[in-house]
């Protein structure tokens, strides 16, 4: 399965808040993913939106799988993460109704793009 991905220009942060925290005002930007469990609330958003006092892993870049993916498709994430695992690149995945997003550390972005292209995927800039 060969996919087309788009490298977004922004830098992102993965934040951790208490499970019962209200959704903060800064988590309402053009790309945000909020997941609440009984243990925590995780927020992925643009790094510049996150206050300094919030527990966060900063310095992530995001690749978006281009196009809408049908729920019946099998192996989309596996076809991407296997390539990155083989290249020893850590990945944080966010999925939406329409598509999937892969976040990799800024320091790994060039190796990520190279590995994905070598595996037959197309990567373009936003």
Number of domains: 1
**Tally of helical runs:** 2
Number of strands: 8
CATH homology-level superfamily: VC0802-like
Quickly name the level 1 CATH class: Alpha Beta
Q: Which structural class do the helices and strands define?
A: alpha+beta
CATH T-level topology: VC0802-like
Radius of gyration, rounded?
15 Å
Beta-strand content estimate: 35-45%
CATH architecture: 2-Layer Sandwich
Largest sheet: 8 strands, mixed
Distance linking N and C termini: 22 Å
| Helical content (DSSP H or I, runs of 4+) | 10-25%
Shape field: globular
Q: Secondary-structure element sequence? A: EEEEEHEEHE
Low-confidence runs: none
How would you state the average pLDDT, rounded?
A: 94
Fold and architecture overview:
The protein has a single domain, classed as VC0802-like (2-Layer Sandwich), CATH 3.30.2130.10. Helices cover 17% and strands 36% of the residues. It has helices at residues 76-86, 109-118; strands at residues 4-7, 12-17, 32-36, 41-46, 56-65, 92-95, 100-105, 122-125. Strands 1, 2, 3, 4, 5, 6, 7 and 8 form an 8-stranded mixed β-sheet that branches.
């Amino acid at each position: 399965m060969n996919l087309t991905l788009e490298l977004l220009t922004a830098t992102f942060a993965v934040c951790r808040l208490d499970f019962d925290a209200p959704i903060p005002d800064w988590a309402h930007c053009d790309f945000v993913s909020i997941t609440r469990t009984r243990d925590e609330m995780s927020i992925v958003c643009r790094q510049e939106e996150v206050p300094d006092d919030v527990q966060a892993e900063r310095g992530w870049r995001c690749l978006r799988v281009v196009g809408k993916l049908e729920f019946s498709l099998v192996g989309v994430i596996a076809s991407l993460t296997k390539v990155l695992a083989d290249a020893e690149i850590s990945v944080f995945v966010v999925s939406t109704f329409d598509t999937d997003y892969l976040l990799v550390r800024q320091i790994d972005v060039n190796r990520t793009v190279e590995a994905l292209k070598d595996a037959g995927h197309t990567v373009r800039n936003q």
